[in-house]
Amino acid sequence: MTKIIPFPLDSSKKQQIRACIENGESIAFPTETFYALGGNAFSESLVERIFEIKKRPRHKPLLLLIEPYLLPKLSAPLSAQIKNLMEQFWPGPLTLILKAHPDIPHFLLGPQNTIAVRHSNSSIVQQLLSIGKCPFIGTSANLSQAPEATTPSGVLSQLNDMLDLLIDGGQTPGKNVSTIVDTNTSPFQIIRTGAIPEEQLKPYL
User: Fold this and answer.
1) What is the pTM of this model?
2) What distance, in Å, lies between the first and last C-alpha atoms of the chain?
3) What are the strands, taking DSSP E only, across 80-188?
4) Over the chain, what is the mean pLDDT?
5) Which of 10, 94, 122, 143 could be joined to 89 by an S-S link, Cβ 3.0–4.6 Å?
6) Is the CB of residue 178 less than 8 Å from the CB of residue 195?
7) pLDDT class for 174, splitting at 50, 70, 90?
């Protein structure tokens, strides 16, 4: 049965969350768009579990929620153009596809040795990253091909008791998913339109 912890987080709740992260357990939590499903991205068993929970095809990689200080361990060196894009739109609903660091775990790699990362402006996400001190898997908390969830009940109606922990932060804004930009092309390419409109991004691509 899924354990539910209400937000905000006191020290006791943070200890429970830290234990979940360290044990490689699955956590659903609100973001600035929809509810996400994740946990310690360096746990291979957790990554496999998330694919199973979502019934997600293995060829579709999972994005990572990060704090910028984690990037040197996750990505290849960043160009000035990539750094400029981050400065303009992070933290926020922008996911960037970057060339991966050569030492990154194989189970996090996307096509052609890439990773997808986002620095979220959600206070809950930032607290989770601070508690875990690791990158977080941050895929949407729904079954593959099903609608994204904006409420805890919406998460549970799809994922039922397959979750270890659900952080109840009430209803999220929903509306749009994050915009995805591939930085491995010239010019950069918008892979998915979302919360950040194309016209805002064009000058930085």
Assistant:
1) 0.95
2) 45
3) 94-99, 114-118, 136-140, 165-168, 179-182
4) 95
5) 94
6) yes
7) confident
Longest dimension (CA), the chain: 48
* pLDDT tens per residue across span 101-149: 999 999 999 999 999 999 999 999 999 999 999 999 999 999 999 999 9
CA gap 121, 118 in Å, rounded: 9
Strand partners, 140: 36
What tokens does 148 get?
């994204």
* CB 172, CB 31: distance < 8 Å: yes
- Sign of the alpha-carbon torsion through 23, 107, 109, 195: negative
Say how far apart CA 111 and CA 60 lie, in whole Å: 9
CATH class of 3-204: alpha beta
The structural domains of the chain, with segments of one domain joined by +, span 3-204
Residue found under tokens 């199973």:
52
Report how far apart, in Å, the C-alpha atoms of 60 and of each of 6, 23, 90, 191 are.
Answer: 31, 24, 24, 14
Q: What local confidence, expressed as pLDDT, does residue 1 receive?
A: 84
Strands laid side by side in the 64-65 sheet: 3-6, 165-168, 27-30, 35-40, 136-140, 64-65, 114-118, 94-99, 179-182, 189-192
